[in-house]
Amino acid sequence: MKAVVTGGAGFIGSHLCDHLIAQGHQVTVIDDLSTGSMANLAQLGEEPGFSFVQGDILDHELIDRLVSEADTVYHLAAAVGVYNIVDNPLRSLRINLHGTENIVEAAVRHRVPYMVASTSEVYGKNDADGLKEDDDRIYGSPTKSRWSYAAAKGLDELVAYVHGAESGVPCVITRFFNVVGPRQTGRYGMVVPRFVDQALAGEPITVYGTGAQRRCFGSVFDVVPAMTRLMDTPQAFNRAVNLGGREEISIKGLADRVVELIGSDSPITYTDYEQAYGTGYEDMQRRYPDTSLAGRLIGYEPTRGLDAIIGSIVDHRRTGFEVTAGPVKTTATTAPV
Ligand code: UDP
Question: What is the pLDDT of residue 144?
Fold first, then answer.
């Protein structure tokens, strides 16, 4: 099978490329290298089935050609990271909205099954105990940067869903809940690599807000195999599916855990959201996934706890070596969904 991976030089995209190549597929990456990096793909440079195209997902002709040659498309290219979205609102909107439309339209035109990566941001401020795929979205004003990103990703899902439903071309929407692991950069805001880098450097750990806000971090090594399994599962077609972890923690708790695991003497500091992200920024206080749909569809069960996830990031930072070990469940299920 030939897969096109948009955003394949990014954090999740590059792990997906590793996984697809290991499964014996051919992979073509398209990435504009805005936030992704060739270093994430260095290990694939010599693979005969691998190729890289530096380009823009808004480029109609390029996308049409690449998609026409593919058997599957994984669309992960997006403007991501809170700092990036706040600093480049128009470019982010165009990429996240028109870029996705361009990919999906090409996939449907050439009848190529496609996956569109979405995000738990689409739930907005809904802090329910275990967000299910059909739960409500609770947004603030779309003129606030955070919600403009959430609104664009919500529309991406709709574009993917409606095209899939009308054309009959298989489509899966994956909603990632704070997926973390080696290669993720903290440059654009993601909290875990930021805290790890700060703790390793002995610098202050920068908690934003009170630190009472809670998140549940999922391992990229759990999430990536689930993506390819979903694309092989007709019951998953034309659905949005949550993917994430199990272990919930406050951001202050995360700071403490990182400091302890690294044995760092970094102090923990507190910064107002406005100072961290600019005027009008709103955070969500809690976000916790219900991944039981993925469980029923593909036997998804996160296997890596937070300490193992943090440990794999620390090891990678310290040694450049990625520890992917740990049981990965591959149980398929035919249970009714
Ligand atoms: N955060 C923080 N310090 C940082 C970066 C982020 O306290 O240096 C907070 C951020 O305000 C949010 C949480 O950590 O409450 C998760 O942030 P991230 O951007 O990783 O993910 P998201 O907000 O999209 O869940």
Answer: 81
| Chain segment 68-81, per-residue pLDDT in tens | 999 999 999 999 88
* Alpha carbon distance 164, 105 (integer Å): 10
**pLDDT class for 194, splitting at 50, 70, 90?**
very high
**Co-location of 51 and 116 in the same domain:** yes
For the CA of 273, the closest atom of ligand 1 is 11
pLDDT at 334: 37
User: How close is the Cα of 189 to the center of ligand 1, in Å?
Assistant: 7
The model's pLDDT over 131-184, given as tens digits with 9 standing for 90+, comes to 999 999 998 888 887 888 899 999 999 999 999 999 999 999 999 999 999 999
CATH number of the domain encompassing residue 92:
3.40.50.720
264 & 135 share domain: no
The reported pLDDT for the residue numbered 323 is 58
Q: Which domain holds residue 191?
A: 180-216+247-287+304-319
Cα(283) to centroid(ligand 1), Å: 8
> Is there a domain that residue 293 lies in?
no
**Calpha distance 232→241 (Å, rounded):** 14
Domain match, 109 and 174 both = yes
Assess whether 104 and 228 both reside in one domain.
Answer: yes
The total number of residues written for the chain in this structure:
337
Q: In sequence order, what are the residues at sequence separation of 6 or more whose Cβ sits closer than 8 angstroms to the Cβ of residue 122?
A: 137, 150, 153, 154, 157, 175
* Owner of token pair 């050439």: 110
User: Ligand 1 centroid to 151 CA: how many Å?
Assistant: 19
145 lines ligand 1 (CB under 6 A): no
**171 and 230 inside one domain:** yes
Query: Is the same domain home to 280 and 166?
Result: no
Residue closest by Cα to atom 20 of ligand 1:
190
> Whole-model pTM?
0.94
CA-based nearest residue to 76, from 30, 107, 127, 34: 30
180 lines ligand 1 (CB under 6 A): no
